[in-house]
Amino acid sequence: MQITILRIFLIFFFSITSFGQAKKYVIHTVAFYNFENLFDTIDDVYTNDDEWTPLGSQNWTTEKYNQKLQNLSKVLSEIGKPENPNAPVFVGASEIENRGVLEDLVKQPGLSPFDYGIIHFDSPDKRGIDVALLYQKKFFKPTTFSNIPLYILKNKEKEEEKNEESPDEETAIKKENNRVFTRDQLLITGFLEGEEISIIVNHWPSRSGGEKATSEYREAAGKLNRKIMDSLQQINPNAKVITMGDLNDGPYNKSIKVALGAKAKKAEVPEFGTYNPFEEMAKRGMGTTAFRDSWDIFDQIIITESLIKPDFSSFKFWKAGIFNKPYLIQNSGKYKGYPLRHSTNEVGFSDHFPVYIYLIKEM
């Protein structure tokens, strides 16, 4: 029965009435979710994961780990409904410990029918957390994928002044010791039902140490994103690129508005530019994460101008959303209204809400 239902999902289409005439479209959901500390229970000597073990401060047991997997699989299987009853064709993920936790996740009963593939690399992040892409093998065929390092230094200007008089070897040692180790940017290119598309999955440097003090790190991440897009567009001027992730900045910050050049309105997007549908949501007070009762949209999906053209003969952007169903929200206590995250008393979901967009194509 489950297989029969899935087959129906795989050929799902919907109708939109325009100018008195109904048109039929193929639809796919693209999602991003910060899984918030998806760690297994095994102590890895190469990462800082001690608290996420049975003897650690989180008392992270096998039972809790399995509950976390079950919770995440429920969310992923429902993102995009009711417009699209199929689960997302792509899921960008962050805060994962290793490939093994993703293999455990996609085997969950709620996700296994969708036959997700996994693209993952270990990042140099000091906590040992990475980004990854899950994709439905039925629809997407990856051709190339790589992890692109984000290389940034602390106290960059002072260090550069000192290094001017330093030997090359000493300069290299100083730079390595002064490096801010963070997540790589994951680039995947492949074919979605025969159409080439590229995806960048991100988890930009955090605000630990203060928003202003760390802004340059995220601006560097935005510049690297833009550089990747430029490279893809030089190869193919019509390249369709989706960049998504926990950017640790809102849509209005310099890393996104200046470094990446994202626009809030489609009409403002220049050729080869980028469109951010989540900026208007932020202006309306919506959010994906909260801190001290202040909401912001750190989780975003941003697309190139090629995906907002009015011709739906190939896959284009339709609309975007924040998946914040009631069961994902804390309903009591000090953090009432916040995303329902893990605590010592309860295995929650995440401290972020997932985000999504729809891609549609006229049949």
Which tags fit this structure?
16 strands; alpha+beta; 25% helix; globular; single chain
In short:
With 363 residues, the chain is α+β, with helices and mostly antiparallel strands. It has 8 helices and 16 strands.
Please give a structural write-up.
- The chain is an alpha+beta fold and 363 residues long.
- Helices cover 25% and strands 29% of the residues.
- It has helices at 2-10, 62-78, 99-106, 156-163, 168-177, 211-235, 254-259, 278-283, and strands at 13-18, 21-38, 90-96, 116-120, 130-136, 140-148, 185-192, 195-203, 241-246, 262-263, 274-275, 289-291, 294-296, 299-304, 316-322, 355-362.
- α2 packs across α3.
- Mean pLDDT is 90; it is low at 1-11, 157-166 and 169-174.
Give the SSE order as H and E letters. HEEHEHEEEHHEEHEHEEHEEEEE
Structural class computed from helices and strand pairing: alpha+beta
Q: Taking Cα atoms only, what radius of gyration do you get, to the nearest Å?
A: 21 Å
- Ends: how far apart? 27 Å
Number of helices: 8
The amount of beta strand, in percent, is 25-35%
Estimate the global geometry from the Cα principal axes: globular
The percentage helix is 10-25%
Largest beta-sheet details = 7 strands, mixed
Q: What integer is the average pLDDT?
A: 90
Low-confidence stretches: 1-11, 157-166, 169-174
Extended strand count:
16
What secondary-structure arrangement, pairings included, does this model have?
Blueprint: H1 2-10, E1 13-18, E2 21-38, H2 62-78, E3 90-96, H3 99-106, E4 116-120, E5 130-136, E6 140-148, H4 156-163, H5 168-177, E7 185-192, E8 195-203, H6 211-235, E9 241-246, H7 254-259, E10 262-263, E11 274-275, H8 278-283, E12 289-291, E13 294-296, E14 299-304, E15 316-322, E16 355-362
Parallel strand pairs: 2-3, 8-9, 10-11
Antiparallel strand pairs: 1-2, 2-16, 3-5, 4-5, 6-7, 7-8, 9-14, 11-14, 12-13, 15-16
